[in-house]
User: What shape does this take?
Amino acid sequence: MSGKVLIIDDDVRLADMVRTYLAAAGFTVEARQTGQAGVEAVARRGSTFDVADLDGLEVCRRLRAISDVPILMLSARGEDADRIVGLEIGADDYLGKPFNPRELLARLKALLRRRRGEAGGQTLRFGRLEIDPGSRTVRIDDEPTGLTSYQFDLLHILARHAGKALGRERLMDLARGEELDALDRSIDVHISRIRAAIEDDPTRPRRIITVRGAGYLFARAQDQG
Assistant: This one.
C-alpha cells in the first residue's frame, strides 16, 4: 500500500525516523517542522495528501477547517481528556508518544483503506438522511454535514448494518480493518460527534441508538413522529 503522508512535528529526529520507516513501507513522505508550515503545505496542495500525521491541537483545528484529509495525531499527552479533545476537533485517530512504529504504520494503512475502500458503493437513504460512499458525503435534507473521514466510515458501517446492534470493539475492527486497541472510549466521542451532525436532538437520538450492554444500533425508521 502506498500513499502521501505529511508529517508536522518540531522533533526533527523523530520526524526523520518516521519518514524513513514509512518510506521503506512504500509511502511518499514530506515533513514540516512548524504547524504553520504544515497548514500552508496542505492549503497549497489541497487534499493531495492522503494522510496528515501531526502534533498539536490548534494545527489539527486549522487543517480540518481547510481540508478533509485524514488526520492522525501524535502526542506526548496521552491522557483520555487530551485524546477526546483531539477527536472532537477533527482528528480521525490518535496515537500517544512514545509509540511503536509498526502500530503507526498499521493505523496509517487503516486510514487509507477506509478512504479508498468505499468509493463506488451504493448510496444509502433513510428518510431525510443520505449517505453517499462515492463522494464520502452525508446529507440531511440535502444539506452536507461536517463529518471526519473516520466518522463517515463509522456511520456508513452502522447504516449498512441497520437494525443490528454493534459493539464498540466490532465497530472499531470493521472501521480500521485491524484488531487495534478497543479498550479506550474514543468510539463514544466519534458517535457523539456523528449524532451532533445528523440528529435533530442529539440528547434524544433517533438515528443512532445506544443499546445498553450491546453497543450502538442504527435505526431503520428514523423520521416518524
